[in-house]
Amino acid sequence: MSSPAAPWTVESVAARPAYSVVDVRLAAGVRIPPHVNRDEDLVVHLVGGEVELVLDGDGRRLLAGAAAAIPRGRPRRLTALTDAHLLLTSVPGGIHGLAAIATDVSLDPDDRAALLAAAGVVRVPAG
Question: What distance in Å separates the CA atoms of residue 31 and residue 119, rounded to the nearest whole number?
Answer without folding.
Answer: 21
